[in-house]
Design brief:
Largest interface: A-B, 25 and 26 residues
Radius of gyration of chain B: 14 Å
Radius of gyration of chain A: 13 Å
Shape of chain B: globular
Largest sheet of chain B: 6 strands, mixed
Oligomer: heterodimer
Strand content of chain B: over 45%
Number of helices of chain B: 0
Largest sheet of chain A: 7 strands, mixed
Number of strands of chain B: 12
Strand content of chain A: over 45%
Number of strands of chain A: 11
Order of helices and strands of chain B: EEEEEEEEEEEE
Order of helices and strands of chain A: EEEEEEEEEEE
Chain lengths: ~110, ~120
């Protein structure tokens, strides 16, 4: 089955620690995205990537970093510079960055502070 | 100003009632796409429908129907004979073309609770 796999489902971060959220897709999509969702709120774009070895900041990139070394993978690192990281993180992909393309989502990762 | 407005934060209905979720958008483009997504309690966003700005025909899929009115910049979603499994947060989204390909903007969502 084609889809997007995010892991882990739940993640806990200690003060001063960097953590990495995994996102893998087998849909052969070129574009991938990371969103943050806070309780009762909509989705805010953190980073996106149109193609391998390329990525762009979204609306709330501060305190986060990404890489895109393989088409299938787009990991997100939440750094210690992100002072309020507790949120639900969603990874998405689309065939390309054409504006007619729907985005398809993974199951998400819930990140909490210890 | 918000590009996508979903004025209803939360709606509660009793099973078998019909319910309409409102979506109003704002854009200067003549060509754009609109989407609806469902987010059940499990968290994953499920893609429901895509509509382009040139197609104002209403669409029906089972108990779901969508009414797109360009004149009022609205793309409303109706669930007929609601069921408990319809309980979720529903997001409307607007996709416009920008210099980098796609500017995809989600509304704040409407939480629908269907009570048995």
């Amino acid at each position: 089955d084609g889809g997007i796999t995010q892991s882990p489902k739940y993640l806990f971060r200690k003060e001063g620690q960097n953590v990495t959220l995994s996102c893998e897709q087998n849909l052969n999509h070129d574009a991938m995205y990371w969103y943050r969702q806070d309780p009762g709120q909509g989705l805010r774009l953190i980073y996106y990537s149109q193609i391998v070895n390329d990525f762009q900041k979204g609306d709330i990139a501060e305190g986060y970093s990404v890489s895109r070394e393989k088409k299938e993978s787009f990991p997100l690192t939440v750094t210690s510079a992100q002072k309020n990281p507790t949120a639900f993180y969603l990874c998405a992909s689309s065939m390309d960055r054409g504006y007619n393309q729907p985005q398809h989502f993974g199951d998400g990762t819930r990140l909490s502070i210890l | 100003a918000q590009k996508v407005t979903q004025a209803q934060t939360e709606i509660s209905v009793v099973e078998k009632e019909d319910v309409t979720l409102d979506c109003v958008y704002e854009t200067r483009d003549t060509t754009y796409y609109l989407f609806w997504y469902k987010q059940p309690p499990s968290g994953e966003l499920v893609f429901l429908i895509r509509r382009n700005s040139f197609d104002e025909q209403n669409e029906i899929s089972g108990r779901y129907s969508w009414n797109f009115q360009k004149s009022t910049s609205s793309f409303n979603f109706t669930i007929t004979a609601s069921q408990v499994v319809d309980s979720a947060v529903y997001f409307c989204a607007l996709s416009e073309r920008d210099n980098y390909g796609q500017n995809f903007v989600f509304g704040p969502g409407t939480r629908l609770s269907v009570l048995p």
